[in-house]
Structure to design on (685 residues):
């Protein structure tokens, strides 16, 4: 009898080893069900742009995970590279048809004659809001705690208008254009986002003490929209002070709305303090379309060393694809994907180089697939 | 003997003066620094808000340490001086030009409307083209970052802060960002010269030339030209969003940073945050002809009192 009891005993002790999340959702903690319309489960097409550098690696990771989950999406792949002059029209047509796109980074040659394709794509499709969600992942040690910041950045105008000219040899001018129309709609999006996601505070980032008219116009629009949402707190902060506060006391920020250039800097700083641009999800959204990509620094496609050794971090794009699944109204797939990714990060065994580990992209993907339930 | 004393006291700046003295005795008016008896004349702008208190602290400390400086105080008026088109009087500016050395407290600038920033006026009138801000972790003041040891050098006169804005039609505002070869060369020269004289090994140029190709491209071209003249200093170029992230993750990666105006403003304040805040950072504006105006970087903080860091 002892001989028979021993293996049973061993099995019992193995099964009771704790994991950080329950294997099956406990009926007592599951939410009330999401009731879809008949036919919502039909597979949705999503345009996929692998991009340059580490792009193909990480988009491949997403494809593998979607396969493993049997998610109701299928990808239409298009090859676009950063040194093309324009985004090919068939890609734009595909995105207009599908309404949703997932993309890796497009590398823009520095100082060359090519306008950034990332920026072109955003302008063509009028994706006027860029969103980055920067938060502390449990199990990933960073210098700052309690970070949960969403940076909403105006995506189409401001310093990135691309309007430059050489006045005389040796003097170059660049135009920064701020319009009331764009400032108003980004402010409206920011407050609506805060309202729909139960966020308590919106902070406008500006430099209106120096650029009085331009950033002054942006601030006016934000103030007007703020009066329509009395339950959400609104305040303003100058961009250099903001960066300093982000580095010393990031817990004071919740949702931040910024014009184009400052948004780039603030998003990258916030991503850096919360764990790095390799893990922060984000996307660009407009009235009709949405493009999901790595949250901050989408133009940074890594160097050859990372691509050759296949050590790129797929976490950012995996979390962005979870955002995409929610956008497509498949919440439980999104929840499963996010839970699996967070579990892998918190266990700490499979982490790529930028998080302090030594795994390859494929190892992280396998770990995520193994953790899907 | 006098030149030996001068050289010991003032390092590279006096080398330049003495060499220019020896080469063109008539063109440069010899500056009298302190010999054994005469004190250095320096201009002091106490500024607004907490300014007068901290200026007072500085004077006390200098008196206690017996530093041979005589302060010429100038206050910012509340009327426009027509000769300078700002609240700073002509006499104040002349005093700085004459003394070549100054110390400035914080001056308030109204947000969104009102007169032009007084800090900007000072910089434009005195042609203070480089703002140097060393950021070093202070031993004894623990922050989350312990190994910060970098210098940010920011172009101070042009770029996004030209102040040239206009409303095209109702609801559309344009703001001009101007980059010139002359100003970029000047600040790049200063940055490499600073790196060399202070034994720094790397200079990084910060830019956004993948988006603003012509403007930041020109800045980068000028930096590259100057870099060729200093082959023993490593030169690299970093895109600004990458730079922000690297600074926040690992500030030890950077040594000397040189950048145009707006990025410089933001990055230098970010670095100040890394070491403990604006209350702890010294800064100096360098002008042509060797003018140096040191300043407190923080604002006038009208709601608090009692900070000591004008001393740094």
């Amino acid at each position: 009898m002892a001989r028979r009891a021993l293996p049973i005993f061993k099995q019992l002790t193995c099964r009771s080893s704790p994991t950080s999340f329950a294997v099956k959702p406990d009926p007592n903690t599951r939410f009330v069900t999401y009731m879809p319309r008949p036919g919502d489960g039909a597979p949705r097409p999503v345009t996929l742009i692998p991009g340059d550098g580490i792009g193909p690696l990480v988009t491949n990771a997403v494809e593998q995970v979607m396969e493993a989950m049997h998610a109701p999406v299928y990808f239409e792949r298009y090859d676009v590279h950063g040194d093309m002059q324009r985004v090919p029209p068939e890609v734009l047509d595909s995105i207009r048809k599908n309404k949703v796109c997932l993309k890796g980074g497009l590398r823009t040659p520095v100082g060359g004659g090519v306008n950034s394709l990332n920026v072109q794509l955003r302008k063509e499709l009028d994706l006027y809001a860029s969103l980055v969600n920067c938060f502390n992942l449990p199990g990933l040690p960073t210098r700052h705690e309690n970070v949960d910041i969403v940076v909403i950045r105006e995506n189409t105008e401001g310093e990135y208008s691309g309007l430059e000219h050489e006045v005389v040899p040796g003097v170059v001018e660049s135009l920064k254009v701020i319009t009331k129309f764009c400032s108003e709609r980004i402010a409206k999006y920011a407050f609506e986002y805060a309202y729909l996601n139960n966020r308590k505070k919106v902070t406008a980032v500006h430099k209106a003490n120096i650029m009085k008219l331009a950033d002054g116009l942006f601030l006016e629009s934000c103030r007007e929209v703020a009066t329509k949402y009395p339950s959400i707190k609104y305040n303003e902060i100058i961009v250099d002070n903001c960066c300093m506060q982000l580095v010393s006391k990031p817990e004071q920020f919740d949702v931040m709305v910024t014009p184009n250039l400052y948004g780039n800097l603030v998003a990258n700083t916030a991503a850096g303090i919360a764990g790095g641009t390799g893990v922060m999800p984000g996307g660009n959204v407009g009235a009709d379309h949405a493009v999901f990509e790595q949250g901050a620094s989408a133009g940074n496609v890594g160097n050859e060393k990372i691509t050759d050794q296949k050590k790129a971090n797929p976490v950012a794009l995996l979390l962005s694809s979870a955002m995409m699944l929610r956008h497509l109204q498949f919440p439980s797939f999104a929840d499963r994907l996010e839970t699996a990714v967070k579990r892998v990060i918190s266990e700490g065994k499979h982490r790529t180089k930028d998080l302090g580990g030594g795994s390859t992209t494929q190892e992280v993907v396998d770990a995520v697939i193994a953790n899907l339930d | 003997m006098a030149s030996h004393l001068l050289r010991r006291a003032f390092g590279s700046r006096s080398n330049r003066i003495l060499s220019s003295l020896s080469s063109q005795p008539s063109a440069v008016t010899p500056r009298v620094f302190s010999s054994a008896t005469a004190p250095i004349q320096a201009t002091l702008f106490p500024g607004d808000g907490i300014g007068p208190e901290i200026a007072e602290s500085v004077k006390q400390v200098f008196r206690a340490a017996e530093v041979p400086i005589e302060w010429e105080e100038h206050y910012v008026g509340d009327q426009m001086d027509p000769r300078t088109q700002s609240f700073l009087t002509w006499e104040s500016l002349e005093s700085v030009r004459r003394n070549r050395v100054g110390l400035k407290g914080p001056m308030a600038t109204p947000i969104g409307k009102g007169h032009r920033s007084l800090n900007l006026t000072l910089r434009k009138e005195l042609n203070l083209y480089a703002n140097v801000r060393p950021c070093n972790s202070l031993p004894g003041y623990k922050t989350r970052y312990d190994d910060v040891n970098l210098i940010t050098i920011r172009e101070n006169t042009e770029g996004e802060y030209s102040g040239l804005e206009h409303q095209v039609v109702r609801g559309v505002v344009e703001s001009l960002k101007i980059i010139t070869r002359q100003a970029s060369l000047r600040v790049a020269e200063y940055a490499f010269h600073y790196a060399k004289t202070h034994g720094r090994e790397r200079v990084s140029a910060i830019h956004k030339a993948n988006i603003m190709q012509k403007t930041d491209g020109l800045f980068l071209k000028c930096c590259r030209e100057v870099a060729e003249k200093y082959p023993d200093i490593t030169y690299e170029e970093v895109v600004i969003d990458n730079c922000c992230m690297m600074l926040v993750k690992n500030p030890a990666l950077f040594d000397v940073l040189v950048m145009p105006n707006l990025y410089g403003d933001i990055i230098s304040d970010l670095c100040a945050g890394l070491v403990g805040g604006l209350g702890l950072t010294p800064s100096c504006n360098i002008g042509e002809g060797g003018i140096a105006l040191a300043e407190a970087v923080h604002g006038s903080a009208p709601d608090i009192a009692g900070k000591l860091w004008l001393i740094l």
Q: What stands out?
A: Chain A has a mean pLDDT of 87.
